[in-house]
Amino acid sequence: MLIAPNQLKNLVLKQAEVVLGHLHVTTLDFPWVYCTFAPTPAFDSLRPLFETELRLSENEDWEALEKIDEDIAALRLELADPTTGAQILDFLIHFDEGTAWFRY
Fold first, then answer.
1. Region 79-95 average pLDDT
2. Can you tell me the distance from the alpha carbon of 37 to that of 13, in angstroms, rounded to the nearest whole number?
3. What pLDDT is recorded for position 80?
4. Which residues contact 48 (CB under 8 A, 6 or more apart)?
5. Residue 1 pLDDT greater than 80, yes or no
6. Radius of gyration for the chain, computed over Cα atoms and rounded to the nearest angstrom
7. Burial of residue 83 (number of CB atoms within 10 Å: 0-12, 13-18, 19+)
8. Looking at residue 63, what DSSP letter applies?
């Protein structure tokens, strides 16, 4: 089931059954969805990967970013609505401290 952007409120970032964090949608600015992000301890091992991804994106190092994006895709992350169980499986997400923003 596809989730329409205007239906997004709270999401859980997961890898398989492991909850990596909780997102609360704050702003829709097509194509981006902005959220507060509360990571769980399970996110700690992935934090350096996403910090590198954000830095490469900001520096427009597209070649290196492509490799990092492949590494992130291999994690098979998902965003899930905890109420309905609806999932977003194909998305691009960034994290910066307590904020996350993604598009799908």
1. 95
2. 9
3. 95
4. none
5. no
6. 13
7. exposed
8. H
